[in-house]
């Protein structure tokens, strides 16, 4: 059980550090939490939906968040713990309006298959979602929760 938690923390740490760096440079706490959660639970079957350009990418990305949160709600705590460790070690700090500032370089060559697949796409879903302001993003999340 403890080993599972350590593995999940490591998986989320890789995702979070990757999202904090270029090309994503997500600097919003709320986006970072939910995008990292969605990436961790993205499936190969669901990745095929991104090829359908008739559907909004942000809708595809967060449309099954309700089921993910119902079955993996405890993982939000793991995400908060990883972010807290980054803050405690002074790698990042949380500023006013939930803005994240990077204090020390965070390097990570991601092995995450979802992020790797997104990087190969002509239109990267995470980059598109990051263009939304936080209120629009949260409205999208709340619509599905």
Task: Give the topology, please.
Blueprint: H1 2-20, H2 29-40, H3 44-47, H4 57-62, H5 65-72, H6 75-88, E1 92-94, E2 100-102, H7 113-120, H8 125-130, H9 134-144
Antiparallel strand pairs: 1-2
Overview of this structure, please?
The protein is mostly helical and 145 residues long. The chain has one domain (2-144). Helix content is 61%, strand content 4%. It is built from nine helices and two strands; from the N terminus they run ααααααββααα. It has helices spanning 2-20, 29-40, 44-47, 57-62, 65-72, 75-88, 113-120, 125-130, 134-144, and strands at 92-94, 100-102. Strands 1-2 form a two-stranded antiparallel sheet. α2 (29-40) crosses α6 (75-88). The longest helix has 19 residues, at 2-20. The protein is globular. The model has no long low-confidence stretch (mean pLDDT 86).
Q: Keywords for this structure?
A:
145 residues; globular; 9 helices
Q: Multimeric state of these chains?
A: single chain
Helix-strand category: mainly alpha
Secondary-structure element sequence?
HHHHHHEEHHH
Q: How many distinct domains?
A: 1
Shape: globular
Short description:
The protein has helices at residues 2-20, 29-40, 44-47, 57-62, 65-72, 75-88, 113-120, 125-130, 134-144; strands at 92-94, 100-102. Helices cover 61% and strands 4% of the residues.
């Amino acid at each position: 059980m403890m080993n599972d938690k350590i593995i999940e923390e490591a998986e989320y740490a890789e995702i979070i550090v990757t999202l904090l760096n270029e090309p994503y440079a997500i600097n919003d706490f709320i986006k970072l939490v939910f995008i990292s959660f969605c990436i961790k639970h993205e499936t190969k079957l669901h990745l095929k939906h991104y090829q359908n350009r008739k559907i909004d990418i942000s809708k595809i990305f967060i449309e099954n968040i309700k089921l993910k949160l119902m079955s993996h709600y405890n993982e939000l705590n793991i995400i908060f713990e990883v972010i807290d460790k980054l803050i405690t070690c002074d790698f990042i700090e949380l500023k006013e309006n939930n803005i994240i500032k990077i204090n020390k370089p965070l390097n990570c060559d991601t092995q995450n298959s979802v992020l790797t697949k997104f990087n190969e796409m002509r239109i990267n879903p995470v980059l598109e979602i990051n263009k939304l302001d936080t209120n629009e993003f949260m409205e999208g999340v709340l619509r599905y929760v």
